[in-house]
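Residues determine shape. We examine one folded chain.
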Amino acid sequence: MCLNIPAKILEIKNNKAIADFDGRKEEVDIELTKDIKVGDYAIISNGFIIKKISAQEAEEIFKFIKEGK
């Protein structure tokens, strides 16, 4: 099973981005979702951005994860 979690995009260089996973920063690939911009939120799976989401959706997911439900 794969856990897809949201992250905020902090920086983009070529086909890579630095994503903030609620305080933990990692490099991710943007090849699958070219319309990503700095400041956007996205769902990340296996190191790839797979879907852009709203800030509200990201906050709801973070809240759900933190509550452990």
